[in-house]
Amino acid sequence: MKLTPEQVESFHRDGCLVVDGYLDDHEIDHIRACYMETVEHLSRENILENVQSGEDRDDQYQVYQIRTAHLRHPIFRMIINDSRLLDMVECLLGPDLRLIHYQGIYKPPHTGGEVGWHQDNYYFNVAGDRTVSVWLALDDATVENGCMWYLPGRHRERLEHTQLWDTSEKKGFYFALRDLDESGAMPAEVGKGGFAIHHCLMPHRSLKNRTGQPRRGLAMHFMDAKMPDPDMLKILPDGATPLLRGRANGLGAS
Ligand SMILES: O=C(O)CCC(=O)C(=O)O
C-alpha cells in the first residue's frame, strides 16, 4: 500500500500522519483474538508488564505491553512481513527496513493508564533519526479511550528526557519529557484497522481509557537498515530486530 505524494509531504511537514482503512473487520477480529490469547498467556506466565508511566499507582491503572510481539505469536510476525505494510513504510524510510522494536499496547476498560510524553528515538538512538513508528489500531482509538496525542511540526529536535525509574524495577516507558510546552497538542483519533504514524522525534503520549471497552494497539518501530546498529540492539533477544526488506549496513541482502 503506497502512500500518496501528499501523504508523504504531510508526514515530513507535520511529523505524523493518520491513515485509515488498512485492515478490514474480518482481519481485525482474527488479530484481536490472537492478541487477547497472547495477553492471557503472558499473564498466566507472570510476564505481562504494566508499562503505564503516569503518576498513578500500577495497581490502579495499567498499560499492558506485549513486548517483542513477533516472538510471542505468529500473527504478529505475519503483520510486520506484509508487503502492503512494508510498501507504506518504504515511502517514508526508503527501501532498507529493519524492525527495531515491536509491542502490543493494551489499555484495559476503565483502568487503562497513561503513557507520558516521549520521543521514540530517545530510546532507540538510531543515527540520523532514521526511524518511523507505525501504530495499528485494533479498536477505534478515541480521546475517550486513550488514543495517541501528537505535537504536529515539533519533530525536528531531540529533547532532553527524565528517567522515571530504574529499568531493573520496571520496563517500558521509563523516559519522559517533563515541563513540555503542550500547546498545539492534537489527538490522533483513528478507526480500527487504521494507522497513526509518527516520526521518531515526534513527542507523543496517550491518556487514560475512560470507557468500558478495551483499547488495543500494535506499535511497530522500523529503522533504516543501512544505519549502524544502535546500542539498543545489543540488549534485545536474538531475532528481535529482523531485517524485513533490502540490505543491512550495506552488507547482507534479505
Ligand atoms: O499505545 C500507546 O498508548 C502508546 C504507544 C507509544 O507511545 C509508543 O509506542 O511509543
Features:
binds 2-oxoglutaric acid, alpha+beta, 6 helices, 8-stranded antiparallel beta sheet, Jelly Rolls, 254 residues, 4-stranded antiparallel beta sheet, 22% helix
Explain this structure.
It is a single chain. The chain is α+β, with helices and mostly antiparallel strands and 254 residues long. The chain has a single domain (5-246), classed as Jelly Rolls (Sandwich). The chain contains 6 helices and 16 strands. It has helices spanning 5-14, 25-44, 74-80, 83-93, 120-124, 232-235, and strands at residues 16-19, 49-50, 64-67, 97-107, 115-118, 131-137, 148-150, 162-163, 175-176, 186-188, 195-199, 204-206, 215-224, 243-245, 247-248, 252-253. The strands form 4 sheets. Strands 1, 2, 3, 4, 6, 11, 13 and 14 form an 8-stranded antiparallel β-sheet that branches. The radius of gyration is 17 Å and the shape is globular. The chain binds 2-oxoglutaric acid. 2-oxoglutaric acid binds next to strand 12 and strand 13.
The Cα radius of gyration reads 17 Å
Strand content: 25-35%
Structural class: alpha+beta
Bound heterogens, unique:
2-oxoglutaric acid
Give the CATH architecture: Sandwich
| CATH topology name | Jelly Rolls
Biggest sheet architecture = 8 strands, antiparallel
Looking at the chains present, what oligomeric state does this protein adopt? Answer: single chain
Broad CATH class: Mainly Beta
Cα distance spanning the termini = 21 Å
Report the CATH superfamily. Answer: q2cbj1_9rhob like domain
- Average of per-residue pLDDT values: 95
The number of E-state strands comes to 16
Q: Count the DSSP helices.
A: 6
Query: Which residue ranges are poorly predicted, with pLDDT under 50 across at least 5 consecutive positions?
Result: none
Helix content: 10-25%
The succession of helices and strands, N to C, reads HEHEEHHEEHEEEEEEEEHEEE
Number of domains: 1
| General shape | globular
